[in-house]
Amino acid sequence: MALSVQFLHREEFESRTLRALGGAACMGVLGAIAQRLHFPLEPGYFAVVAAAMAGARASPGNAVGLRAALAVLPALPFFLGAPDPLPQSLAGGVAAALVAWLGNGRAEAGRPGSVAASAAAAGVLVPLALYTQQVMEARFLGSTGLLPVLTGFLTLALFWSIGTLPANVVVEADAVEARGRLLEDSLKGEARPLAVRALGLYRQCKEVVLRMPASAGRTELLGVLEKMAQESFSLAEAHAGLEAQLGSVVANDVDAQVRELRARAASTQDAVARRQLELAASSLGEELNHLDALSRRRERLLAQLHAQVALLERARVSFIGVQGSEMGAKGAQAAQLARKLKSLGEEPSAPASDDAQPVSPPHGTRVTS
N or C: which end of the chain has fewer CB within 10 A? Predict the structure, then answer.
C-alpha cells in the first residue's frame, strides 16, 4: 500500500496565515510605539501571540479558554531563565500546539500527531525567524523605527504560521483510505453517506485480510478490495461534481424562459424579431434537454454507487467464513476469495444508454440578421 500525503483544508491554512500576518502587523505598530517610549516588546512573545490570537479559529465553547491559554502559556518559558532563543522556541511551539489542537477552524480537535508536529515545526522556525530578523536589521533596516520593528514582527508571524502547516497535512500509509478520508471531509449531498459507508467497509475488510498469513493470495485480495473502494470513491466524486453543477441551474427557470420567449415570438408582428425569439427559445430548449440528460446521469451514478457499496457489503459478508480458526489456512483460500470478489465486481450489468455517456454542453445558436 502506497504512502499518501494529503494537504487538507488549504484555504483554512492560507486564511490563518493572512490573519496571523495582520495580527502581527498591528502588534508591530504597537511595538514601534513602545520602542519610542523606551519600553521595547519581546518579539518572540508578542509577535507570536498576536499571530496566534488572530490566526486561531476556535469553536464558541473553546474560544475564551483558547485565547486565555494563548496569552498565558507561551509566556511561561520566559520565566525559566533559559538562554535565547530557547524561550522563544518554546513559546512558538506552545502557541502552535494550541492553535493546531483547538484553533484549527474545524469542529473536531486536532490529531495528537498533527499537534506535536506543529509544535516541533514552529519551535524550529521561530528561532530561524529571529535570526532572519537580526540579519535584516544588521544589513538593511537598522534596529530602530517603525519599519524594522514591523518587518521583524511580520517575519516571526510568517515563519510561525508556516510551522502550523502540519495541522493541515495528513500522512496515511494507505492511499485508498486517505482518499476516503478526504472525501469524508469534502463531500456533500447524497453521495457522502455512501462514500463514508464504503470507507468503513473497506477498513473492516482490510482488517480481516491483514490478519491472514502473508501470501500472494492475500496480496491479490487486498488489490481487489482497493479497486472496489476506489471505484466507489470515483462514483461518489462524479456524482458530487454533477450535483454541484446542477445545483447552480434551476430547470424550472429555464423552462419558464422558454415559454416566455415562445409567447413573445407568437405575439410579435416583425418577422425578423420573431425569428430571433424563436432561435433564442430553441437554444434554451437545447439547454433544458441538456439539463434533463445530466439529471438522468446523476441518478444513474447514484444507482451505480449504491451497487458498488452493496458489493463491498457482500465482500464483508464473505470474510465471515474466513475468521476464527481458519485464519491460519494457506494462501490458496485468500486467492480463491479474491477471485470470487473479482467476479462479483465484474457481473454483467445492463447496457448503458446514450444518456450514460458524457454529455457535452449544447452549442450556442448564432443569430444573424
Answer: C
